[in-house]
Amino acid sequence: MAQGIPDEVMMNDTLIKELADVAKDAALLQGVLMRIQETPNSSELVTYAPFTLFPTPVPKAVFLQALAVQTHYNTLVDKISQDTDFLEEALSSTIAVDDFTARLFKLHQQILKEGRSQSIVLGLNRSDYMLDQRDDGSSSLKQIEINTFAASFGGLSSRTPDVHRHVLKVAGRLEESQNILDNNPAAGLARAVAKAWELYGSERAVVMFLVEESQRNIFDQRYIESELWKRYCGRGAVLEETSQQLYDGQEVAVVYFRNGYMPQNYISEQTWDARLLMERSLAVKCPDISTHLAGTKKVQQVLTRPGVLEKFFPDQPQVVEQIRATFAGLYTLDMGDKTVTMALEEPDRYVLKPQREGGGNNIYGSEICQVLQGVKGSTERMAYILMDKIHPAPVQNYLLRRDAPLQLNNCLSELGVFGTYVRQGKDMVMNECVGHLLRTKSSEHSDGGVAAGVAVLDNPLLI
Ligand code: ADP
Ligand code: MG
Ligand code: MG
């Protein structure tokens, strides 16, 4: 591990086995928990959420760059969500061929026609990056995507620093242990939810967490809920419900969606009706339908066109520059087959992305050719965007996962930064960067995602 954990530790099998046991107990002790796959809706049996044995070295300058740009990304997402013409133009080709995005867009149009019911907007997002390795060995921060809907692991990542600190201490690496940063996205996310609740202005009203049918990752949102109870108790109630029922008999001030970003979440027309009902309601939606659309990969691609960022920040060239510096190459498939040809020639240089979330949807390598051959010459190709593949420097680490063998892996990491904002009418009342998330996966896997079972939780060790 370059400037990280020395080989004498990394390669000492006896020590590694001992540390793995220590690490798992530390994770359980700190509450880095997940329900088990077999019983995702019961807390009778829980296990540690998968995580790395050691933290991963991350260059300090790049880490700080990611934190520094976050409030600008918050502003950008919020501006996009208010720019109806931009959203319509950016998404017009996608909605012509992608049914799910089209359905969301239709809902958006309906809400605009009826008039927005609520002028308070709550944004909880996470901008994800990988560090692209340059030829000179330095790395450059490249955004993978921004999640405006159900960005998770702000809870569990508030608890992982103490786990790695402890492991490093036991390993005799006191200095590294002291370099693990504090992190508390849960508190920041809760602060924004509470602010939205307060502005809503009804003592009786509650915050509703709209949760998934299968709730393996429940402890992640419990931390946010717990922060709300702890710090804002007496100023309102917190509760949660499943996707099927709207909470009965209580006024809802804030709906926090942790469910509803995948087509599979909309199992019936009633589910779409429920989404519409919530969008129409007076509740503050996190996210509202416009902010949901602002987080699509198609919008991400359109933002890289010349002049688009300038339109959103007309008098702030330094903000434009800061945001643009994090853009990877993104290409439209709308303009004939030019991009298709480019990707077919060198598929390993790119990632092909449909408008989907949650991991496991992107297309890599030779499969890009298969898919593109199939949609070449047809408008179906417009459902995708093409992106330069980012190549982070691999780092060796052990991934701790229930029932998985303990082995040294070549790993790639993805850094996420949590941003929150609350807007009331024209006033940005709150705009913050509230913490980070490092996820690490074996380099064998192209795609990522902790919930998808590929990546595991990690901490940056600043170097
Ligand atoms: P999702 O919304 O499903 O999380 P992402 O765009 O984040 O979609 O892609 C999922 C995973 O695929 C990422 O976590 C990352 O591991 C990998 N990935 C995505 N884009 C790239 C890229 N441009 N270069 C390298 N890996 C990528
Ligand atoms: Mg992602
Ligand atoms: Mg995503």
UniProtKB/TrEMBL annotation:
This protein's UniProt keywords: ATP-binding, Glutathione biosynthesis, Ligase, Magnesium, Metal-binding, Nucleotide-binding
EC top class named in words: ligase
Catalytic activity from the UniProt record: gamma-L-glutamyl-(2S)-2-aminobutanoate + glycine + ATP = ophthalmate + ADP + phosphate + H(+); gamma-L-glutamyl-L-cysteine + glycine + ATP = glutathione + ADP + phosphate + H(+)
Residues reported in the UniProt entry to bind ATP: 145, 297, 353-362, 364, 387-390, 414, 441, 447
Entry GO terms, CC: cytosol
One Pfam match: GSH_synthase
Cofactor notes: Binds 1 Mg(2+) ion per subunit.
Transmembrane segments: none
Superkingdom in the source lineage: Eukaryota
Single GO molecular function: glutathione binding
Key word Chloroplast present: no
Chain positions recorded as substrate binding sites: 126, 221, 439
Cofactor(s) recorded in Swiss-Prot or TrEMBL: Mg(2+)
Residues binding Mg(2+): 145, 147, 357
Pathway the protein contributes to: Sulfur metabolism; glutathione biosynthesis; glutathione from L-cysteine and L-glutamate: step 2/2
Enzyme Commission identifier(s): 6.3.2.3
Domain Glutathione synthase substrate-binding: 205-294
Annotated family: Belongs to the eukaryotic GSH synthase family.
Subunit structure: Homodimer.
Physiological role: Catalyzes the production of glutathione from gamma-glutamylcysteine and glycine in an ATP-dependent manner. Glutathione (gamma-glutamylcysteinylglycine, GSH) is the most abundant intracellular thiol in living aerobic cells and is required for numerous processes including the protection of cells against oxidative damage, amino acid transport, the detoxification of foreign compounds, the maintenance of protein sulfhydryl groups in a reduced state and acts as a cofactor for a number of enzymes. Participates in ophthalmate biosynthesis in hepatocytes.
Record's protein name: Glutathione synthetase
Gene name, Swiss-Prot/TrEMBL: gss
